[in-house]
Amino acid sequence: MLLTPKEVAAALRVDLSTVYRWVHLGTIDAVLFGPSAYTVRIPAAELQRLSSSSPKPPASEATPLGVGALARARAIPDLPRTG
To answer: What is the pTM of this model?
Structure first.
């Protein structure tokens, strides 16, 4: 059975963005669907694994907010400056 990130967040009592962060970091396994892997589903076994252990990732995997946006911004080539 596959769960939505919203269902996992509710079951673990964490914010939805935390679930997406864990997926991005590889802390939890997820299945990505669609042409650009936009749709995320999490196997029920992952929810059981997380609920039986501490749902928080180790400190070494924690990232401050905005790091993903910064990484994406660096991937965009610099635009010519005008003015």
So the answer is: 0.60
**What pLDDT, in 10s, does the model give residues 19-58?**
999 999 989 999 988 877 678 999 999 989 888 875 455 4
81 occurs within a structural domain? no
Domain presence at residue 70? yes
- Angstrom CA distances, 9 to 14, 25, 39, stand at 5, 16, 16
Is there a contact between 41 and 3 (Cβ–Cβ < 8 Å)? Answer: yes
Total domains present in the chain: 1
Neighbours of 48 (CB within 10 A): 11
